[in-house]
Amino acid sequence: MASDRPDAAELLDAIREFLENDVMAATEGRVQFHTRVAINGLNMVTRELRMDPTVAAEERKRVAAILGHDGTPADLERELAARIRDGSLDASQDDVRAHVREAVRNKLLLANPDYLPGDE
């Protein structure tokens, strides 16, 4: 149920805190490295869960406008990439660049917000 506590993001926070506070201090070498990788993955999933749900909808809307039709996000992105490669979107280059810039920004915000200084 969506109103149950803890929610998914809170559970991920608890797991991350356990890994950071208990596992990191009790391990070294390869296990510690993999623990750090797991912590980074949990942080990414937590940010994605907390991301404004309109971000994905806005991204889909931008691509659909560029291509002139709607579809699944994966199909739209695949077609966008193919049409960039074949040059058929050259007339829409400004819109394509704006979309790609915003999509990359959103991906960086999920991967690691520190990659974008001054951003939230």
Give the helices and strands, then pairings.
Blueprint: H1 8-26, H2 29-50, H3 54-67, H4 73-86, H5 93-111
Helix pairs in contact: 1-2, 3-4, 3-5
How would you characterize the overall build of this protein?
This protein has 120 residues and is mostly helical. The chain has two domains: 8-50; 54-115. It is 73% helix and 0% strand.
Question: What's the quick description here?
Answer:
The protein is mainly alpha-helical.
Features:
120 residues; 73% helix; mainly alpha; 5 helices; single chain; 2 domains
In DSSP terms (H or I, runs of 4 or more residues), the helix count works out at: 5
Radius of gyration: 19 Å
Give the class from helix and strand content and strand pairing.
Answer: mainly alpha
Shape: elongated
Percent of residues in helices: over 70%
Give the amount of beta strand, in percent.
under 5%
| Oligomer status | single chain
Mean pLDDT: 91
Number of strands: 0
When the domains are counted, the total is 2
What is the end-to-end distance? 29 Å
What characterizes the major β-sheet? Answer: none
